[in-house]
Amino acid sequence: MFHFRGNNGGVVDLTQSDDESVDGQVDAEQEIAVLGNRRKISGIIDGRPRPQAQRIYIKGKGGKKGRYVDPSAQHKRKVRKQLRDNRVADGDHTGPLSGPVGLMVTFWFRASQASQCGQPHTKRPDIDNLQKLLFDAMNQAGFFEDDCKVATVSISKRYCLELGTEGHTTYYVYERLV
């Protein structure tokens, strides 16, 4: 099991319970256990996880060219700011991670019933669209040179562990062993 210190000083568990597993989870845990001096970045992004929305085309008027607008741009800026603030708070000013990068992420959604707490979240938004927004924000925040550097990913969607807790995202980024 892996834990890391969150922004509020509390301990956050990134892994699933012993009775549940995700393909590749054990491999990622074994890899993290032997990281030693390799760089690791972890933290919490406050706020309900939101997906990367599809760009919208706005037609130009009077013969002018149209343009594409990203409806997720404002949320992406907020996420990017929190990512940068988390790195500064942890004293990490060393630039992007080099080489292959591993990433463990859990998107936590607000539970409306006690029976949902800690359970997998199987409703919209889709996990791939959540991942796109986070990867873009991490790339722009300088976590890695390009998201093509991400070689290992473990992502899950779950309901928060306590009823009424606001949604958030936990992340753990690390330099992979080659």
How would you concisely characterize the structure shown here?
It is built from 3 helices and 8 strands, in the order E-E-H-E-E-E-H-E-H-E-E. By secondary structure, it is of the alpha+beta class.
Write the layout of secondary structure elements.
Layout: E1 3-5, E2 11-13, H1 25-33, E3 40-46, E4 56-58, E5 67-69, H2 73-89, E6 101-109, H3 127-140, E7 150-159, E8 168-175
Helix pairs in contact: 2-3
Count of all domains: 1
Anisotropy-based shape: globular
Name of the CATH architecture: 2-Layer Sandwich
Stated plainly, the CATH topology is called 60s Ribosomal Protein L30, Chain: A
Oligomer: single chain
Strand order of the largest sheet: 3-8-6-7
Q: Average the pLDDT over all residues and give the rounded result.
A: 81
What does the radius of gyration come to? 18 Å
Structural class: alpha+beta
Relative helix content: 10-25%
Cα distance spanning the termini: 23 Å
CATH class: Alpha Beta
How would you describe this structure to a colleague?
The chain has 178 residues and is an alpha+beta fold. The protein has a single domain (3-175), classed as Holliday junction resolvase RusA (60s Ribosomal Protein L30, Chain: A). 22% of the residues lie in helices and 26% in strands. It contains 3 helices and 8 strands, in the order ββαβββαβαββ. A 4-stranded mixed beta sheet has the order 3-8-6-7, sandwiched between helices. A two-stranded antiparallel sheet has the order 1-2. Helix 3 links the parallel strand 6 and strand 7. Helix 2 crosses helix 3. The chain is globular, with a radius of gyration of 18 Å.
